[in-house]
Amino acid sequence: MIDLRSRDTDRVFTEIPAGTLLTTVSVRHSGSPEDLGDYAELKQAIRDRKRPQEQYRAIRQYVRDSIDEITADEQAEKAVPARPATPTERAAIERDLTAVDKMISTPPTASAREPGRFYRVGDRWFGDTALIPSNAQHMGYGDFQARVPGGSLYFSRRDQKQLPGQSGRLHELSLREGTDLPGVLERLATAGLAQSGGTFDDWPRVPGEPETSAPAPLAQVPPPDDVDASDDEPGPSPKPPAPDLLAPPPVPAVAGELAFTVDAKELQGALNLIRRVSVPGDAKLSLVQIECRGHVFFRVGSPDQYFELRFTTTRCVSPGDATVESKQLAASTKHLTSGALQVQKKPREAILQVGVVGRQVSVPTVAYVPVRLDDDLTGAAQIPLEAFMDLLDRSMFAVSTDANRPQLHMLAFHAQGERLTAIATNGHMLALASIDTPDAAALDGQRIAYPALLRLQKLLQEYEKTVRPGRRRKDAASPPLRIQTATGGTKRLALATDLFTFIASRAPAEPIAYQNVIPKAGDLTTVCVVNRAELFDAVKPLASAKELARVQVATPLEIKSDTFSFNLRDVFVDGPAIEIGINAAYMRDVLEGLRSGGPLVALAFTTPTSPILVITWPDSALPKTRRDARGPVLAALESNNITIVMPYRLQN
């Protein structure tokens, strides 16, 4: 037991009376239990037992988070009266005041610290510790909030991720006030308070490092005795497509002409949407192709994946084409927020003029290869936008982010009658999410690669904000998402709304055979229903410390590792007790993916070495009988709304 007190000689936790017991942590290790005095003795004990220092850091962070939570609860109830300061404390306060007076009287000097870095990974923004300004307010649990030009920037602590140039811990960035997070970060960079650390479609990995470290990947689970094991082995990686010799040549920057008018508000809305999916520095995803032929279209992407916006307030005066960099166009026109704007490119000039008479800005045009449009897209199928986004929310967390594993680096769709199922796996967990829709067959066999999937999700989220600001209102109808497909030489899928059309080539690799790892209903032996938040809080510190968990499924439910031990008593267990090994990181990811469900989750087991079934519990209360516990689990199995986590084999 670690007894962490705020002592006279080392007041680690300020504003708490010295000697106050803050919390205790149970440290499990081989040998007899012993009492450890403080952090120093804990660190030495871990070092003596040759345990990794990650365990010490995980314990320290867990204790600090617990202290933040306890302190917040206690302050909400009543304030603890402070005792008179001791002579030692009064002397320390005097020293601090003297140091403050010296700092105030000394002229400020330029800081030599390098500005913090911000990163874009997929559709999310992150920043390192050095990015947190000195005036930031600590919100508890390692989170911070700071006022910045353009809004209130919130830093949400995440697990340690090593990104290029990262300093300290990584935080996910979001705006509590304001809507233009990329614009806020650009202003900070312009002022010299931040710098870009890079843009990534997926989490970058150290060369040679495997994506995961679990010993039993999903793709290698042995099939039943009567099934050939070779059926489950992933096939060879597909060869990259050969370059198209008939691809159109690049168009020079001076070529083309056009002229049209557009409402300033619609232009700014289009640029905000483009910013979500553009990638600065990418030869294809950093450009905006403008087409003016009857209607005006903005296109971003490549023949493999692109989206186009069709404007409704435009009037095409002179047909033609032009291409500019999206970042340059947004920066040059950001102050044009009202009125009808004139957009013009004259022949043999590499300049696009945007504005009104007497107030125009110039945006340089660039050379480009035109996006090849699909003339063979057919179909009139529709699916409710809300239903399709629900599929993405319940499955995308399980898609592999490793581009070197194409069979897993995608989301696949399968239709059976009117039931449409989205299938995602990274080799160690599997997610099946299903809905019923009359046009399910239109998406049967479609496969969307992970990078395109990220951009599609961002576009749909922005579109939903526009057309359904009251998503949670019962009277807010879900608009349709139109589906078209191309069955020619290059198979493509088009998803269209009244704001944009998204087109992506079908992922070339076939998905792995996953059916053999789904438990049979008759093989389930033990069903456990537990509070999702409590289970998440138990596995999160283990995942941060990169430890494997031993789970004793009984009442109470016990989760332990070499460092941590948790007992969850608010559980319902039906069936014999079972002990099973779980990779805490995978269970954490699954529970995060199920956060859209209710407060409870159900875990179903067959044997200690068989896949673990996880489902969202449809009720807000624990079951009372065996029938109540097994009914929803069997229904989820039958409807393909399940998540599977692979266990690891326990060592006796």
Distance between the termini: 25 Å
Q: Specify Rg, calculated over alpha carbons.
A: 28 Å
Question: Strands of the biggest beta sheet: in what spatial order?
Answer: 23-20-21-22-35-34-33-27-31
Strand content: 25-35%
- Class by alpha and beta content: alpha+beta
Poorly predicted segments: 5-16, 27-31, 74-82, 103-111, 206-246, 471-475
Principal-axis shape: globular
- The biggest beta sheet, please? 9 strands, antiparallel
| Overall mean pLDDT | 78
Number of strands: 36
Number of helices: 11
Tell me roughly what share of residues is in helical segments.
10-25%
Describe this structure in words.
With 652 residues, the protein is of the alpha+beta class. The chain is 23% helix and 31% strand. It has 11 helices and 36 strands. Strands 23-20-21-22-35-34-33-27-31 form a 9-stranded antiparallel β-sheet, sandwiched between helices. An 8-stranded antiparallel β-sheet has the order 15-11-12-13-26-25-24-19. A hairpin with a 5-residue loop joins strand 24 and strand 25 (492-496).
Give the structure's gist in a few sentences.
This protein is α+β, with helices and mostly antiparallel strands and 652 residues long.
Which helices and strands, and how do they pair?
Blueprint: E1 2-5, E2 21-25, H1 39-48, H2 53-77, H3 87-105, E3 116-121, E4 124-128, E5 137-140, E6 143-148, E7 151-157, E8 170-177, H4 181-190, E9 194-200, E10 258-263, H5 264-277, E11 287-293, E12 295-301, E13 305-310, E14 315-318, E15 320-325, H6 326-333, E16 340-345, E17 351-356, E18 359-364, E19 378-384, H7 385-393, E20 410-416, E21 419-425, E22 429-436, E23 447-449, H8 450-467, E24 480-486, E25 492-496, E26 500-505, E27 526-531, H9 532-544, E28 548-553, E29 557-560, E30 565-568, E31 571-574, E32 578-583, H10 584-593, E33 600-605, E34 612-616, H11 626-639, E35 642-645, E36 647-648
Parallel strand pairs: 3-9
Antiparallel strand pairs: 1-2, 3-4, 4-8, 5-6, 6-7, 7-8, 10-14, 10-16, 11-12, 11-15, 12-13, 13-26, 16-17, 17-18, 19-24, 20-21, 20-23, 21-22, 22-35, 24-25, 25-26, 27-31, 27-33, 28-29, 28-32, 29-30, 32-36, 33-34, 34-35
Helix pairs in contact: 1-2, 5-6, 9-10
